[in-house]
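User: I'm putting together notes for a lab meeting next week and I want to include a structural view of one of the chains we've been expressing. I don't have a solved structure, so I'd like a prediction I can at least talk through. The sequence is below, exactly as it appears in our construct file.
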Amino acid sequence: MRRDTIFYKLFQQSPTLLFELLTNPPINAKAYRFDSVAVKEPKFEIDGVFLPPENAGAGIVYFCEVQFQKDEQLYERVFAESFLYFYRNRARFNDWQAVIIYPSRGIEQSDIHPHRSLLNGNQVHRVYLDELGDIRQLPLWVALMVLTTVAEEQAPQEARYLLERSSVEQSETASRAIIEMITTIMVYKFEQLSQRDVEQMLGITLQQTRVYREIKEEGRSEGRSEGRQEEAANLIIRQLTKRFRQEFSEEIRSSIYALPLPVLEDLSEALLDFTSVADLQAWLNNS
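Assistant: Thanks for the context. Below is the predicted structure for the 287-residue chain, given as structure tokens.
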């Protein structure tokens, strides 16, 4: 389950969500925008960055990392990338904060001694989703984050509860966005189930949600179709880059951009099982 993609979609829908996890959010939290940024020399991309409004003078930049798998050099990478970006953009920011989101403490890097000063200070915030409390008592968008960690036997019940809650608490537009997120989470969580099975589980028709409607809807212009194809290709390349921690050759990138939208949809599912770049190349060769 590609939870990092789900979390970044959550942040795109609701940038203030990050600050609901912090004890002392900035006073202008609603003005922040969520983005990914690239740093050259060496080049790497930081997927989760919350940028203060540019018209408010120097502000605090927030770095966010969602980590659902054990990485024994996570802090080395996160701090190196964050420090370099802060250094390159020092004139824009007067301070930095980092937020690391884990499903539980057991996923955290084992050897944290070299980073004790940062981790025990007030600039780095470690969030353990299983310690946030009852999912039904949490703010709705935070509850969606916790839903990604709920056991399969409990997830359908909690998902239906959150669907009902969103219809009561949210505007029609916000409720639709939450339905999309819950749908995405459950489709990823129950990959072995058919579309009909997930529909019955949630009590909704997935064809009515955007993720399926955009593929099936008729009467769209060719220009819009091309735009969706390019957007899907860009997202897949970003996912692959983050998964394998490397830039891909122009040949591979061109091959992905050349794929039609239905094939890109297939690739977005297949890449979840890739363990190496060779798997990607083999898939492209056979597509």
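A couple of points you could mention at the meeting. Strands lie at 33-39, 44-51, 59-66, 93-102, 124-128. The first helix runs from residue 3 to 13.

User: Perfect, that's what I needed.
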